[in-house]
Every structure is written in C-alpha cells, then in structure tokens.
Amino acid sequence: MPNRVLFNWIGDAMKIINLETWERREAYAFFSQIDYPFYAVTIPVDVTRVKEASKKRGLSFYHLMIWLCTKAVNSVEAFRLRVRGENVVLLDRTEPSFTTLSPGEQQFRIITLPWEAEPDAFCAHAGEKARKQTAFLAQDEECDGLIYFSCTPWFDFTALSNEHNFDRDDTIPRIAWGKYYEQNGGLWLHMSIEVNHRTIDGCHLGLLKEAIDREIAAL
Length: 219
Prior knowledge:
219 residues; alpha+beta; 3-stranded antiparallel beta sheet; 5 helices; 10 strands; 28% helix; 26% strand; disordered N terminus
C-alpha cells in the first residue's frame, strides 16, 4: 500500500480516551515503547455468499467486499481508535479508502468515499468515482479516519506487508486480499490485516473476523 500524507479528520465525531482509567493502558504503554509496533495476520475467509450476492445484484465483488469489511471494522471499537499526539481518540466511524485499476491499465489510483448503509448505493458510487477520478490520489480527502483497502486479483497470497513512514502513531488498519480460490465446494480468499499493537490485540482481530463472517452470512 502506498505511503499517505495524513491530515486531521475535520469535524469527525470522537471522544478522547482517559489513559489513566483505560483498561489497556499498560499494554498501550508497553507497545508505545516499541520502535515498530505493527504486525499483520493473514486469515482465510469464505466469500461464497459474497460472490453469489454480487452476481445476483449486479454489483462489483470488490466493492461489495469493501462495503461489508468497512461495516465489520466499524463494529469493533478497537479499530476506530487513533493515536493523535499525546491522545488516543475513539472515532464515531471510519471510511474506506481503496486502490482501483481500470481494465487495460497498469497504474492504480486510490479512491476514498463515505460508507453508506445500502450496499447497492455504495457500490454504485464507488464505481462512479473510480471511473471519474483521474488523479492518483485526492490529497484533500486524506485523514487518519480511514481504512486502507487493496487487493491482488491476479494471484493468491499467504502473507503481505505494507510500507510505512516511521510513525508509531499510525493506527490506520490496512486490509488486503488476494485472488479467491475454490475449496470444499466454495470460494475462499486469504485476507491480510495489518494493525498497530498499541491499539489492537489478537482478540480484536478475532472479533473482526467474527464480524466479517457475520456480515457475509447476512447477505
């Protein structure tokens, strides 16, 4: 994923965490001393229903995955935490920012737009913006209230790393997946989730996996 220049999220709804009473204050303090507090896991996800729903409703599989993953991420509080200087804040919601590549091209672009409760509307607006945006990145849309998404539809992977500026305050989740594959009569893909250990532990990744599976089942 590309390096991003971040600006403050203007006008976002948030609350400042009281670090003195925060239940994970000791873990936060411990991992705040680490030079590189980032880590990633790769998990298999059954996307059979996503493929079926996208085909039935005429939606982009990729955009539908972004829609449901964004909903899942926002349902887990730890994924909405951001480190801002001396403060840790809890955002009311985060928004998707994702790579896109037009057919026949080799240079991707980065699209950012608000999540919408209706998947058909979100997918339509995502496709429209992907077609209309000619710049590599709309810099005025950059902030820390995002989730970075990407995919490699040309191949599957079992591990993935992301480039970073040397910024331990970077608490933006990075989610990517590879080409789906057939297994046990269904379609699966490997999903990489990279996070900052200052705010997210393994149990939170487990909650996110449960939320993603739940949103897929609800399609």
